[in-house]
Amino acid sequence: MGYRIVDPDAIDPTPDRPCEQRALTEPAELEHVAMNRYRADPGESIPLRYHFHEKQEEAFYVLAGELAVETPEKTYTVPSGSLFVVEPGDPQRAYNPADAAESIEILAIGAPQTTGDARQYDPNEPDDDAGAE
């Protein structure tokens, strides 16, 4: 049996990110799921760029604030206490709008845990999959 308690606040934020990211996957010793906690001030983006994943499903659970998620069709508004799900191959860019009244906190979960399956998405060239996140 394996049980662990992980305190996200005890994990150093990942450097060189557009917002505060605390990578939980390794401290939790997860093998099949990737997990991160994000805190974004108004105007900050969650991912490094507009992207999609080839194989990974993503789910964003909003712990506090209101998350905006840009997709090719529309921008979704995800309130606190709600879950936003992205299927593999579907582009998205999650962020906290510049005119937001408060910071947001989200828990991001991805499965399967992968490395290198993120691809940059260019809205002007929808078939562009060159360039990893």
Summarize the entry for a quick read:
By secondary structure, the chain is an all-beta fold.
Fold topology:
Blueprint (H helix, E strand, L loop, with lengths): L19 E4 L10 E7 L10 E3 L3 E8 L1 E5 L4 E5 L3 E4 L6 E3 L8 E8 L6 E3 L13
Antiparallel strand pairs: 1-2, 2-9, 3-10, 4-7, 4-9, 5-6, 5-8
Sequence of secondary-structure elements: EEEEEEEEEE
**Number of H- or I-type helical stretches:** 0
Total number of β-strand segments?
10
Distance between the termini: 35 Å
Estimated structural class? mainly beta
- Give the CA-based shape: globular
* Share in helix: under 10%
Largest sheet: 5 strands, antiparallel
What number is the mean pLDDT? 92
pLDDT < 50 stretches: 128-133
Strand-residue fraction?
35-45%
What is the topology, as strand order, of the major beta sheet?
A: 1-2-9-4-7
Rg is 15 Å
Write up what this structure looks like:
By secondary structure, the chain is mainly β. 0% of the residues lie in helices and 38% in strands. It has no helices and ten strands. A five-stranded antiparallel β-sheet has the order 1-2-9-4-7, with no helix packed on it. Strands 6-5-8 form a three-stranded antiparallel β-sheet, with no helix packed on it. It is globular and about 45 Å long.
Comma- or semicolon-separated keywords:
five-stranded antiparallel beta sheet; mainly beta; disordered C terminus; single chain; three-stranded antiparallel beta sheet; 133 residues
